[in-house]
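From the methods appendix. Each design record in this collection lists the tokenized structure first, followed by the designed amino acid sequence. Records were kept in a plain field format so they could be parsed without special tools. The example shown here is representative of the layout used throughout.

RECORD:
FOLD TOKENS (149 positions):
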């Protein structure tokens, strides 16, 4: 059973990345455009408008698997800021201060920044075709699994 779970890991990671990115992008779009029951934030208002823009852009990039690590790192930082500046001053625990969503997004994106996009991502298609070697011809020593396309 563990062998099958391990074989599915890169694909499940891709699915996780897609779902988290999509949810984040939808949250940003709802805030930016005032749709899906959210109140529209005033253009340029600090920090709400910028947070929503980061959510829409980074969430879309993460969902597509394009620049996943950088976008996830930025998204994680924005959610850490949201948690500590907006939620945490209200109460210590996320359950008490309404910061559960910010905390979960923060940790999910931090995980993606370290694990990468998984096996199904646009980065795999737009990246270098020769991923087994560096530009000087020396083999790479990272542990990133390569999946044939």
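DESIGN:
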């Amino acid at each position: 059973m563990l062998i099958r779970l391990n074989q599915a890991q890169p694909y499940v990671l891709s699915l996780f990345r897609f779902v988290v990115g999509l949810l984040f992008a939808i949250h940003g779009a709802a805030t930016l455009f005032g749709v899906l029951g959210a109140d529209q934030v005033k253009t340029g208002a600090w920090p709400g408008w910028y947070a929503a823009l980061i959510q829409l852009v980074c969430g879309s990039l993460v969902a597509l698997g394009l620049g996943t690590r950088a976008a996830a790192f930025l998204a994680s930082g924005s959610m850490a800021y949201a948690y500590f500046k907006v939620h945490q001053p209200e109460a210590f625990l996320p359950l008490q201060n309404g910061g559960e969503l910010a905390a979960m997004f923060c940790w999910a994106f931090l995980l993606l920044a370290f694990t990468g996009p998984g096996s199904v991502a646009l980065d795999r298609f737009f990246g270098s075709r020769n991923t087994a070697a560096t530009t000087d011809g020396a083999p790479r020593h990272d542990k990133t699994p390569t999946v044939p396309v």
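APPENDIX NOTE: The two ends are 26 Å apart (CA to CA).
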